UniProtKB/TrEMBL annotation:
EC number: 2.7.11.1
Residues reported to bind ATP: K44
Annotated keywords: ATP-binding, Kinase, Nucleotide-binding, Serine/threonine-protein kinase, Transferase
Protein name: non-specific serine/threonine protein kinase
Low complexity bias locations: 392-434
Region annotated Disordered, chain positions: 272-328, 376-442
Organism: Streptomyces phyllanthi
Domain Protein kinase residues, every copy: 15-274
Repeat is among the record's keywords: no
Lineage: Bacteria, Bacillati, Actinomycetota, Actinomycetes, Kitasatosporales
Gene Ontology MF terms: ATP binding; protein serine/threonine kinase activity
Gene3D superfamilies cross-referenced by the UniProt entry: Phosphorylase Kinase, domain 1, Transferase(Phosphotransferase) domain 1
InterPro entries, A to Z: Kinase-like_dom_sf, Prot_kinase_dom, Protein_kinase_ATP_BS, Ser/Thr_kinase_AS
SUPFAM superfamilies tied to this protein: Protein kinase-like (PK-like)
Amino acid sequence: MGTEGENLRVIAGRYRLESTLGRGGMGIVWRATDQLLGRQVAVKELVLDPSLSAEESRRQRDRTLREARAVAQLSHPHIIVVHDVVEHDERPYIVMELVDGGSLAERVNAGGPVDAREAARIGIALLGALRRAHDAGVLHRDLKPANVLMEAGTDRVVLTDFGVARVAGATTLTESGSFVGSPEYTAPERMAGLRTGPKSDLWSLGALLCAVVSGESPFRRDSLGGILHAVVVDEIRPPVQAGPILPVVRGLLERDPERRLDAAEAERLLRAYRETGRTPQVSAGHTPARGDGPGSSASRAREPGDPPGAQPQDTPETLPNPAPFGLLRGLIHGLPARESGQPVRQPTRGALVAAALVAAMAGAGVSAAALLMRDGGGDDGGGTPSSSAPRTPGSPSAGTSSPSPTGTAHSNTSGPSAAATPGASRSGAATAPTVPSGYRLANDPRGFALAVPEGFTRRPQGERVFYLSPGETFRLGIRIAAPEKGGPLAVMRRAHAGGPSAQPGYRDGRVTSTRHDGRPAALWEFTRDGFTAREGPRHTYDLCWEQGGQLYDVSVSAPVGKVSEAKEYFDVAVDTFVWTRSPRKGR
């Protein structure tokens, strides 16, 4: 919560911002007073991407205002009331009713899961809200417990935060291809970057119903890669508590949107349960197709090899495991034939799964190469995917990569980055990192190893070792030194302060405190001019952390037009970096 007197500015000559109610990736929500009408309101200040040009910022601002005005036309007792949409100092604001009460997520966190009857009530309200929005051509795209308010006194269910909503026929806030939403509640077709519709919101509702009766989404894992794998591939095991409304949950969590339960039938089933107290039956013609083989809709007993958290024999039916073949096939459709002219072999199930996950990770802004490290690329085999049961936090996860606050993907407890470092309990040499396709493992004589792209060559330069692409378009640098006063954050701040004198045309520099493998770290990003006119402007990512009495610094520099490719190289370098032995001096 903010404090009284925080900011206290007036926007649009009418709304006095008084204190913050919450912050998120899309902006800040303020408690405010409408000075014209003398009433309390909530004002959402939308934050625009600061890296956009003036023209791009204007277009994004126009889209935001246009879509917010469309949402303002929605009138339903379970949809937040939007009073006004204004612009102030070239920034959009959405003025909404102030709902006195916390979110559904806060309710579950504070009071525990709700029973199936209450979940059905909440589901009915949200289905009504979604049907109204969908009829108007508006998709919510971020339905989750945190975006559902529970009004104090009345217990009214209010769907809010249409901040990433999409209006049918409009260019969306995410036209650049970046992913928005919460992965644990996101439909597989959206993960795959395919065309989405109202059925995608209904998948999210299915995940929400599971979460409110059990305390967590059925797709919760200890890493982003694990979540994506669970959504696209793993067996879907609804919680035992969802048993009374299982036909609804099972129908909404159907991976193929064409077979997914529609809103009208889902609402009918939930109302039938509320009225009779008995588990309802899906009407003829609405029953989703049942899967066959591993992961089919057959009750599955917990087996000795199942990880902690797997459900016992009385678990409700598991949902079909494989993502629809058409969905997966679409993800790899159009892949070019090999340059050698040899025919492309038919993709295996493992390759299809990998393709789905790569598409999902790319949509979420995570390095595809880092994901492939998780499953060895998925080129061969077609082994059974890992269990969908939530893993115990901190337990080994077969090298599952997880996102760090820097946006890089680094391994969990059993992955390469955690292996046999100076401070690790394991003795002997470090476990070699898994190298993604297109990379090679560089065992550097200075005492470290990491994956670098094929064709990169090593060039020591003072205290830093560089791995350079042909023509030096990309420059991957590694420095190992003694710890410095103030730690990684102070090191990077000093470098940032000296940027203008050390780097020609230094600009857009920023230093962010973060963590790497559980240790304090700092990320420094900046843009500079080339040292020659031919070189042109370049952008740099630089991560610094301390480990085992050493200071490690990994950076990537590239032309500003190749930042996405450079970020992948950076992600993989950081993810696979391991200390191997005491460095050999003079190398």
